[in-house]
Fold these 2 entries.
Entry 1:
Amino acid sequence: MSARLLLVEDEASLARGLADNFRAEGYEVRHVARGDQAGAAVREFRPNLVLLDIMLPGRSGLDVLAELRTKGDRVPVLMLTARGEVVDRVVGLELGADDYLAKPFALRELMARVRALLRRTAPATAAPIAELELGGVRFDFRALTATSPDRPLELTSHDILVLKVLAERRGEIVPRIDIVEEVSGLDSETMLRKVDNHVVALRRAIGDDPRRPRFIHTVRGSGYRLARADNA
């Protein structure tokens, strides 16, 4: 069943574009343009995530958020703020927002934040992966260590965390920006390029030929996929 997103945004062209892109990604989307319509929409639609603009007619996004939290509604909320409005961001987080993004924003970053929030707030369905063995190397994701019986390994904790993200979504294509979000947060665009460096280090450690990889596959224009165990 697809996740339900409630978009509370009064800028009509932006709302249409976002709704179209979210639906193309498989989400169920409802849009309201006024803050005083948001509470009823949350009660009726029961979204998995609310994207909430701050500057809204009828009622501000901060007031909407405050009412939700006062009533005990813990639906994840991603605030959309005007660039430079630091006070609004701080107040939003203090009121219980789960994340914020300043306008104008890149669609790719918004999509990544939505996916990350939905993953973080989804009910746990399985125990987190604790260990994995690839190419004779044993990875311990709790201790963030990697050991090999016959050679020293030069892997950082971030290298191992990148593999952990891939292992937890084994068989899926994981976008680079998702990996950045999981490993270190979206604090720098340069981190996208560092993901490739982490993969190079991992491939070297497990003896994975980048031209014909057995384990970590590059999906051009998308990201990486860790092969399922029966294909490795």
Note: The mean pLDDT is 88.
Entry 2:
Amino acid sequence: MEADDLKTAVKEKYSKIVNQTKQQNVSSCCGATGCCTTVEYVNFSENYELLEGYNSEADLGLGCGIPTEFAGIKLGDHVLDLGSGAGNDCFVARAIVGDTGHVIGIDFTDAMIERARENVKKRGYANVDFIKGDIEKMPFEDNQFDVIVSNCVLNLVPDKNLAFAEIKRVLKHGGHFCVSDVVIKGVLPEKLRKDVEMYAGCVSGAIELEEYMEKIKNNGFTLLTIHKQKEISIPDETMLNYLSKEEVLVFKNSGTGIFSITISGYKE
């Protein structure tokens, strides 16, 4: 599929997801009925409920980590959340930056932006904003942010090299990013990689870990640290929707794995 077609597929998918409950979303790795419905919640999402700033209305259960946990956000920081959805990570970041900081969420799905703005209006925060935009071409000036976070979103971006170039552009000198994302170790079968439903929320938009790290390094980031990683297990019955029994066996014995990672890097 072409990049524009993939973006359209993601927009359509997440426009539906925003109107579902968290439980509906976490019961499927794609966040919608009919895809990966046997994947358990613990395989993807983390529990935010004890974090300061947590807002249950903003938690759609779509993440694969807690990037703010390792982001080193400080009081007064200017923070950007890429693919902010209904605002979950933004509200957690806001609790850290306090009244003197500023948090902006960017998302290219109208329904998500609308939901996030509703959530911030209910809480009366003057220093949290949600802006519609594309991560590959962000509507911000250079050197704007102290910290950039993202949660299980960059795997959905067609041009990850361009995404990291944009992250570097809008970060201040000495600033850093911390993102949770999905990566592959080994080669994912093409039948999984090409499927639109799997792409829009699961794992097929992900790339190999070494390639992921290389794209970050090629954009000049330093002090790269993988803070956390865990394997994402896809049940046999799910893979059988895309692969034959023989192909499933080969896949399981190949050493290939799907992992969520939380990684940070600095702009000099």
Note: Strands lie at 78-82, 102-107, 128-132, 145-151, 171-185, 222-231, 257-266.
